[in-house]
């Protein structure tokens, strides 16, 4: 399992100023009053791993993740999230980067869409999604269950439940790679 070490947000939802969250081993929860941004943090994690659905980010369109302004602060036009991974045990496939630390970043410019980087080099959304599928985590991973999803899992059709089991078994990465190969 790769260890996520740091999440950095800038202009993302309610996190208008640069905010860094150190993810230390053993962290078990985020607590805070209603509306303080706990779910926004988890969504930032999902977003940087390649989430493509604005709805799953609780928005109407993807630009809604950009800080939209408050009574005394103007809206921003850029949101950025960076996720740092500890890669000392080389769990991230070498094609992405063979460094001890991997930084994945995603940025969205209002009206312009998203761009991704892996350790400073431009990457496609697909590359980032495959990277996380290979390390068995990711935007749609069973490891991230949002409020309301538990019922959906219980009521899922067998085929959908199978994909959850495949994800848990760590073979989703193989499917992503097969799909990628078929597209070529
Ligand atoms: P709860 O305990 O109720 O689940 P929470 O800590 O999970 O609360 P979030 O849902 O993460 O809270 O944060 C909600 C806050 O984020 C709201 O105040 C909302 O206005 C703010 N917010 C969401 N999107 C944006 C945006 N694009 N710009 C500015 N603020 C935003
Ligand atoms: Mg919440």
From TrEMBL:
Signal peptide, first to last residue: none
Binding annotation for ATP: 33-40
Subcellular location: Cytoplasm
Entry note about domains: Contains large globular domains required for ATP hydrolysis at each terminus and a third globular domain forming a flexible hinge near the middle of the molecule. These domains are separated by coiled-coil structures.
Record's function text: Required for chromosome condensation and partitioning.
Family per similarity comment: Belongs to the SMC family.
Quaternary state and interactors: Homodimer.
Protein name per the record: Chromosome partition protein Smc
Whole-protein coverage range: 1 to 184 of 1154
